[in-house]
Amino acid sequence: MTDTYARTASTWRNWAGNVTARPARVESPASVDELAEVLRRASGDGLTVKPVGTGHSFTATAATDGVLIRPDLLTGIRDIDRAAMTVTVEAGTPLKRLNTALAREGLSLTNMGDIMEQTVAGAISTGTHGTGRDSASVAAQIRALELVTADGTVLRCSADEHPDVFAAARIGLGALGVVTAVTFAVEPVFLLTAREEPMTFDRVTADFDRLVTENEHFEFYWFPHTGNCNTKRNNRSAGPAAPPGRVSGWIEDELLSNGIFQVACSLGRAVPGAIPSIARISSRALSARTYTDIPYKVFTSPRRVRFVEMEYALPREAAVGALRELKAMVERSPLRISFPVEVRTAPADDIALSTASGRETAYIAVHLYRGTPYHSYFTAVERIMTGYDGRPHWGKIHTRDSGYLARAYPRFGEFAAVRDRLDPGRLFANDYLRRVLGD
Known about the structure:
alpha+beta; 8-stranded antiparallel β-sheet; 5-stranded antiparallel β-sheet; 14 helices; globular
């Protein structure tokens, strides 16, 4: 390792701008060997280490005053195994580049979240997920992992090799080592038909279980201060492909969902009293539409309006009750909420710190426009969600600590034991991990 790969330290900010850090130095290793040397040097200098992706987490999970590792040079596909139907990708590869590269090879991930700006390692480390009846989070599609541990060891793990590490490291919070490569299960590229349709709050909550059961992927957005929702159902299709028209797609995805919404949020932040009226207009602006395209073009959408977010994972059977309680809280409070509330689902998985670990899950996410005071709203929401045994998303704002989380996750102790073994000196610690995992 040479100083060629070290950069002068500067202030780091996350995407939303609510987290900042000033590391002692920033490193961009170009290989696994160089990364291992970075870790050994940091340890020798008495500095902690945190890898960072594109900063799309709203928590300080990547913040450090030690060594900040940027994976900019650890990108690209290492291997495609068509017999095993897997792809091995460098951890710094943005999901956007992975998706387009897979599509060129006639391949696809089975499910993904609703944005694709994150790096592969960043997305899996914090538990990025989409919505799905049968298919789970991005991390649940992992078949093997490579990470560099605190002593510079390159450790490969899978269901057959170091299975205890594999069970923890698929959502590792950056606490176990630096992920350098990920092997995903893939399948031949397929088509999804998306059906977007306005629906009343009362109807979508009354029919929630049926809508989840009847569709491979179901999600909806409720617009606070209204009784209106917008629903989205994605199901596999035999085709033909029928993507949104160039003009109509731009109107829906750019003009309405980003451009005009940006103006509405700015107006609402300046004049909070106008938000209920804006919400009623906004909730009626989106019309029903149906289109068919390859998966990543259906699952993901551009998000150019910046915000802060809290999301809780609940037992699926608790979702409707919690959402109705949230709606009632907003209606009786002086809060003015300019962003819709997002509801998604996931099947149970077997990852130690997955928000869906061991239980069928529904996610309720609340957002506020960047720069808007969020403490009162998020505190009230968190009070409701914890009343339903909610698990906070690791990369989104919350106040839970290790005492709460150890009760919320039956396998919390298993994760802690792996951490103690791989990082006994806490090379990868920071304030956020001390709060959520303990010392």
